[in-house]
């Protein structure tokens, strides 16, 4: 029996995938609403194929509960926010999950931590916690770390096809956990120790953050020189050993904009490249506001209230708004002139901003300049609707080639 703890963005698809592939699974979440919805057959996660996977998992006997269960293996997939002030990981949810598992688990249970944690968290926080509760690690309970690597927007495909890392103290435990993930994962599952597994996860996201920061830096340099940054990157990327990512209005989501800070928080004297990259990305909404003001001047536009934000999600075709560039830009505008701009996102129905529209046509009526912050398929299909508007496209959409760019 596997008890998946935390039925959010990662825990839920993982639990469903395991149950759909022959594992006995109970998914646990402390939120009664989450559990009730799932028990009633409602899945709120917006990912292609999730409904079908849910039905397969139900057919495979998955159950949902607010209670922790007696199980052989626990997969802990709870949030690990970062603490703004210190830039360090907040592992309190993981710690609390581990404590609760210890109350119910049988001798010999394996605790697999799947949540992203900063390198060293298991040695510094989790092992002492388990020992403090009188358990001997390696005899009473076993530890493993299997960081997730899937990308929102393509989660189910990546769950099946990405390579994975499993870190464990004992090879046999690693092999056992590898077999469990191997029930659905067709990618290579690499076995290593726990500290290495912790480091790889954060390094992967840091690599991407630094590469995006470089693209953002290039966008600023090219703007100063009147060059097209996309053309420059495109040509550079024809070199066999160059692969620059794309500039954008900022870096959102709960991973790339967060995890690299763990390295900065733990190693402030050493992780200076990472710190500079994170600052570069965090400054992008300010750069977008500068572009908006420049374009307004070119068009003798005086009222910033006629500038509208298209896209509040953190990236294309998802509804997740955590750390989203749209919300960051609104914050920057607020600091600048205490005004909430009209905004719209087809995927975001809940009201996040006071001047947010649920209808594209109504939104467009309010604005003369539209800032495209997210390249949702919806706007790409309906680019015609923007005719007659001034457009600042921060996503370089081929359908909006006449627009202003970063
Ligand atoms: N972005 C750019 N330019 C780019 C690519 C992305 O500005 O060229 C922006 C996006 O618009 C978005 C942000 O970066 O605002 C992050 O988006 P993303 O698609 O790069 O990544 P996430 O945060 O959705 O998912 C990442 C993935 N990590 C890597 O690719 C190394 C995913 O595999 C991880 O599982 C996930 O973080 C996680 O959970 O850690």
Features:
single chain, alpha/beta, six-stranded parallel beta sheet, 42% helix
Describe the 3D structure.
The chain is α/β, with parallel strands linked by helices. The chain is 42% helix and 13% strand. It has 15 helices and 14 strands. It has an 8-stranded mixed β-sheet with strand order 3-2-1-4-5-6-7-8, sandwiched between helices. The longest helix has 32 residues, at 194-225. The radius of gyration is 23 Å and the shape is globular. The N and C termini lie far apart (52 Å). The model has no long low-confidence stretch (mean pLDDT 96). The chain binds ligand SAJ. Ligand SAJ is lined by residues 116, 148-152, 204-205, 208, 212, 245-246, 248, 251-253, 255-256, 314-315, 325.
The mean pLDDT is 96
Helix content: 40-55%
Please provide the count of β strands.
14
Strand content is 5-15%
Hetero groups in this structure are: ligand SAJ
DSSP helix count? Answer: 15
Q: What's the multimeric state?
A: single chain
Q: Could you say which overall geometry the principal axes of the C-alpha atoms support?
A: globular
Query: Quick one: biggest sheet?
Result: 8 strands, mixed
Task: Write the topology of this structure.
Layout: E1 2-5, H1 11-20, E2 25-28, H2 32-39, H3 50-59, E3 63-65, E4 73-76, H4 92-104, E5 109-113, H5 121-132, E6 141-145, H6 155-161, E7 164-168, H7 171-182, E8 189-192, H8 194-225, H9 229-236, H10 259-266, H11 272-282, H12 284-298, E9 307-310, H13 325-337, E10 343-344, E11 356-357, H14 360-365, E12 369-372, H15 377-381, E13 390-393, E14 404-405
Parallel strand pairs: 1-2, 1-4, 2-3, 4-5, 5-6, 7-8, 9-10, 9-12, 10-11, 12-13, 13-14
Antiparallel strand pairs: 6-7
Helix pairs in contact: 1-3, 4-5, 8-10, 8-11, 10-11, 12-13
The structure holds ligand SAJ.
Ligand SAJ is lined by residues 116, 148-152, 204-205, 208, 212, 245-246, 248, 251-253, 255-256, 314-315, 325.
């Amino acid at each position: 029996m596997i008890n998946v703890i935390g039925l959010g963005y990662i825990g839920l698809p993982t639990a469903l995938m395991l149950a759909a592939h022959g594992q006995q699974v109970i998914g646990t979440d402390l939120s009664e609403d989450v559990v009730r919805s799932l028990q009633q057959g409602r899945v709120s996660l917006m990912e292609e194929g999730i409904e079908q996977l849910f039905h397969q998992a139900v057919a495979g006997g998955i159950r949902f509960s607010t209670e922790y269960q007696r199980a052989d293996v626990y997969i802990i997939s709870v949030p690990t926010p970062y603490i703004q002030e210190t830039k360090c990981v907040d592992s309190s949810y993981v710690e609390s999950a581990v404590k609760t598992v210890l109350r119910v688990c049988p001798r010999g249970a394996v605790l697999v931590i799947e949540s992203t944690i900063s390198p060293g968290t298991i040695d510094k926080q989790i092992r002492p916690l388990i020992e403090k509760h009188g358990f001997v690690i390696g005899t009473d309970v076993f530890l493993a770390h299997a960081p997730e690597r899937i990308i929102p927007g393509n989660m189910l495909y990546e769950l099946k096809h990405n390579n994975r890392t499993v870190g464990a103290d004992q090879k046999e435990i690693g092999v056992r956990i590898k077999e469990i993930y191997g029930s659905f994962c067709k990618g290579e599952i690499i076995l290593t120790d726990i500290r290495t597994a912790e480091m790889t996860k954060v390094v992967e996201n840091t690599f991407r953050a630094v590469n995006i920061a470089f693209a953002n830096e290039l966008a600023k340099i090219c703007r100063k020189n009147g060059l097209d940054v996309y053309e420059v990157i495109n040509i550079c990327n024809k070199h066999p050993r160059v692969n620059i990512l794309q500039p954008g209005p900022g870096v959102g989501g709960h991973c790339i904009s967060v995890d690299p800070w763990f390295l900065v928080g733990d190693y402030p004297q050493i992780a200076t490249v990472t710190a500079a990259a994170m600052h570069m990305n965090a400054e992008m909404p300010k750069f977008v506001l500068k572009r908006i003001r420049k374009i307004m001047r070119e068009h003798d536009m005086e009222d910033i209230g006629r500038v509208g934000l298209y896209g509040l999600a953190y990236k294309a075709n998802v509804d997740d708004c955590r750390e989203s560039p749209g919300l960051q830009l609104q914050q920057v505008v607020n600091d600048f002139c205490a005004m909430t701009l009209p905004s719209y996102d087809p995927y975001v129905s809940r009201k996040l901003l006071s001047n947010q529209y649920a209808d594209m046509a109504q939104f467009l009526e309010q604005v003369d300049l539209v800032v495209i912050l997210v390249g949702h398929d919806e706007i790409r299909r309906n680019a015609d609707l923007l005719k007659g508007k001034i457009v600042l496209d921060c996503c370089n959409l081929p359908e909006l080639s006449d627009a202003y760019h970063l």
